Amino acid sequence: MEVLLSSFGILLPVAVIVLPFALFTWRLLVQRRRRTRPTWIAASTAGIDVGAVLLAALVLALTMIPVAGGHTSSLHLVPGSDIVTEFADDGALWQIAGNLVLLAPLGALVPLRVTRLHSVARVAWAAFVASGAIELTQFVLHVGRVTSTDDVLLNTLGAAAGATLSCGWKRDHEVLAIPAPRRPTREGGPVRV
């Protein structure tokens, strides 16, 4: 537990400081959206949008905070090696759970608002790219973290699990989605992209 607090203890004060600003932003968005939508839709969409942005900021803060005493990054490119080590050496299983949970909330929220990410496969692909970018940035910035293919795989799996929960709900509630942009055709009429 001491390792968790020393590594991630900064997130609690950051979340406490950011939460009032998030609530204020949500309220402003609700007021603005109530002009064109029913109140419950305005409140729901504003909550999803603010929640997704807040979660993305916390993910970036969590993954980019330098590790105490670490000035170089290490690279683990063999898939499964870190997972086996965590199970075999009575390692910190919280790292596996943390990587599974890291992008799961975003995987659940983003499909509710972005129509292009309405399938689990598309969310998984977006999570794979985002997680790869996070791991690459950690390695380049030398924040003392381990850059691992297992982190990318676990993050992607967690986001896909989150998307599985929300994509089934979204099919019944298309009203919350942001419509895809329309492009004019040669005939001049709009066509969904």
From TrEMBL:
Keywords: Membrane, Transmembrane, Transmembrane helix. Residues 53-166 form the VanZ-like domain. The chain crosses the membrane at residues 6-29, 50-72, 92-112. It comes from the Bacteria. InterPro entries: Teicoplanin_resist-assoc, VanZ-like. This is Glycopeptide antibiotics resistance protein. It comes from Amycolatopsis endophytica.
